[in-house]
């Protein structure tokens, strides 16, 4: 049992080692930083219009930033990250090295998917961290905004986590696409088209049937609870796409 | 004991057959050369041996086990290098081996042993800055990581300069002689195969046209006998009665099959009072034999 845990940990660690010197980690940290900084700049210049007097400014600050993140940037970042993490293997046809190792084909897919989910968790944590960081900077730069109120770090973290869970369907599907297509362009374009399509169809009455809209829909309610229908369906979609991925991996032929 | 055994191995690309019933047998401890012109199916055969191509059950047996049903067990005993080494160019050579150690649960101390063995001392810089020779050596180190019994090397000298080829040849011989590895090596460099391999197989259009010891190949196929006498024209006429002959300006080239044919020709000339200045069997080298076997007439 202990031996299995050690082996699993080492395999997961190996997947993380592959990310060294790549854009994958940089993107996971830099994009949340960029969005939080953008929001910070907007609050610096237009904060007096955005803050409702007598309320905790953190509430609107966190909610509006994360809503923007969930609607557009989160799906796009997942799409790019999925392509980046799989391109590590596609370049130089690393698959032929991976698939001749005495490792099950199931494990090849599973540990890479796990590393991808880790990147998404890192993104959610980075977003929360930078929201808090810039919020605290506002205390000193714009004390009149009232950011010295409770910073709602728990709510912010839960909202980030909820968005991440609600994006599980995107995570599963984009990973499956990028795992299969050697070209960086095909899965990225497919993902971009679906995301833009979701944006256009956001007011469509059946939008709830389209999992790419779940990160955005899950933030509609400011309810701090993590579990809602979108999150559960998204997680089920991740399970289904992963099962498809395991099947594809087991049948994969390497040229 | 046979390390590799394929039984009527077939493989198709869509409707196009690539391998047409290959029966390969590779014995433990041998250096087995796998020859064939481009497109003959060498790399596909190697992919089948490593489980990278889907083949019928029981058509590929390694260590007596079917690759379809005992894939992981078999791969624990195989190291491979397919064409150009597959490496993470954005990482150092050490990191590349460390990742493979973690994926295969191999102790980290093995890295240093292997780097010493393949004479790769500077492994801290990114692989993208390595020369092809260094990459090939790192690829061999990666293949040896789990201390496998069998090494499958597909064109390991591809793109190497003469010094790199010599080093690679030396390394392969060392691995076979000092470490007891069975080595299956495909190459289009016939001279290399001739220098290294104890056994070989020749593939043509997805079919084996020869399999056996390198010396058997030479003995099996025709040799030339170079003859120079006091009267080459008359000698040629006499020899031609029994053997195909080609008369050049200064020499007669007689096509013979066995060693005793030299004695027969010698007697013919002696009986006809012709002085013999030269009677020299000339074996075809592997390259000539290879082309004879793989070229369509």
TrEMBL record, chain A:
Signal sequence residues: none
Claim: Cell division is one of the keywords in the record: no
TM ranges: 21-44, 68-88, 109-139, 159-177, 184-207, 227-248
Domain of life: Bacteria
Protein name (database record): ABC-2 family transporter protein
Pfam families documented for this protein: ABC2_membrane_4
Keywords annotated in UniProt: Membrane, Transmembrane, Transmembrane helix
TrEMBL record, chain B:
Cited Pfam families: ABC_tran
Family the UniProt entry places it in: Belongs to the ABC transporter superfamily.
Organism of derivation: Pedobacter caeni
Keyword Repeat among record annotations: no
Domain ABC transporter: 4-230
Protein name stated in the entry: ABC-2 type transport system ATP-binding protein
Lineage: Bacteria, Pseudomonadati, Bacteroidota, Sphingobacteriia, Sphingobacteriales
PANTHER family cross-referenced by the UniProt entry: ABC TRANSPORTER, ATP-BINDING PROTEIN
UniProt cross-references to SUPFAM superfamilies, sorted A to Z: P-loop containing nucleoside triphosphate hydrolases (SSF52540)
Record key words, sorted: ATP-binding, Nucleotide-binding, Transport
GO molecular function, one term: ATP hydrolysis activity
UniProt superkingdom: Bacteria
SMART domains: AAA
Keyword Ligase: no
């Amino acid at each position: 049992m202990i031996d299995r845990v050690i082996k699993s940990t080492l395999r997961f660690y190996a997947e993380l080692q592959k990310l060294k010197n790549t854009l994958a980690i940089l993107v996971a940290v830099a994009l949340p930083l960029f969005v939080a900084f953008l929001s910070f700049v907007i609050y610096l210049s237009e904060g007096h219009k955005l803050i409702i007097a007598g309320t905790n400014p953190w509430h609107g600050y966190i909610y509006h930033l994360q809503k923007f993140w969930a609607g557009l940037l989160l799906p796009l970042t997942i799409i790019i990250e999925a392509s980046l993490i799989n391109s590590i293997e596609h370049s130089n046809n690393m698959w032929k090295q991976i698939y001749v190792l005495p490792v099950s084909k199931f494990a090849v897919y599973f540990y890479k998917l796990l590393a991808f989910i880790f990147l998404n968790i890192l993104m959610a944590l980075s977003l929360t961290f930078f929201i808090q960081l810039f919020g605290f900077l506002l205390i000193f730069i714009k004390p009149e905004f009232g950011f010295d109120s409770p910073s709602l770090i728990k709510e912010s973290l839960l909202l980030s986590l909820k968005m991440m869970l609600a994006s599980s369907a995107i995570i599963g599907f984009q990973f499956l696409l990028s795992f299969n297509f050697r070209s960086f362009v095909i899965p990225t374009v497919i993902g971009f088209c679906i995301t833009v399509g979701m944006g256009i169809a956001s007011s469509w009455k059946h939008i709830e049937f389209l999992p790419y809209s779940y990160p955005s829909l899950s933030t509609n309610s400011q309810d701090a609870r993590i579990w809602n229908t979108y999150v559960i369906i998204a997680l089920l979609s991740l399970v289904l796409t992963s099962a498809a991925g395991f099947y594809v991996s087991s049948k994969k032929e390497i040229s | 004991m046979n390390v590799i055994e394929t039984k009527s191995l077939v493989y198709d690309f869509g409707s196009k057959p690539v391998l047409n019933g290959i029966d390969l047998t590779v014995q433990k401890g041998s250096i087995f050369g796998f020859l064939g012109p481009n497109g003959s199916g060498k790399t596909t055969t190697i992919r089948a041996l490593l489980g990278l191509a889907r083949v019928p059950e029981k058509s590929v047996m390694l260590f007596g086990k079917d690759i379809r049903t005992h894939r992981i067990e078999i791969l624990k005993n195989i190291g491979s290098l397919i064409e150009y080494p597959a490496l993470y160019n954005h990482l150092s050579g050490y990191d590349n081996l460390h990742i493979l150690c973690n994926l295969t649960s191999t102790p980290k101390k093995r890295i240093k042993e292997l780097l010493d063995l393949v004479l790769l001392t500077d492994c801290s810089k990114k692989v993208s800055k390595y020369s092809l020779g260094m990459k090939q050596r790192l690829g061999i180190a990666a293949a040896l990581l789990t201390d496998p019994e069998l090494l499958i090397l597909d064109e390991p000298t591809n793109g190497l300069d003469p010094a790199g080829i010599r080093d690679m040849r030396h390394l392969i011989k060392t691995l076979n002689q000092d470490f007891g590895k069975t080595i299956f090596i495909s190459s289009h460099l016939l001279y290399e195969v001739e220098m290294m391999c104890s056994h070989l197989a020749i593939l043509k259009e997805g079919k084996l046209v020869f399999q056996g010891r390198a010396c058997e190949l030479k003995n099996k196929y025709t040799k030339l006998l170079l003859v120079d006498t006091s009267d080459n024209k008359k000698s040629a006429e006499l020899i031609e009665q029994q053997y195909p002959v080609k008369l050049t300006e200064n020499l007669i080239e007689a096509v013979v099959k066995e060693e005793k044919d030299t004695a027969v020709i010698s007697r013919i000339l002696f009986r006809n009072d012709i002085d013999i200045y030269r009677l020299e069997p000339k074996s075809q080298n592997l390259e000539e034999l290879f082309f004879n076997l793989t070229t369509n007439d």
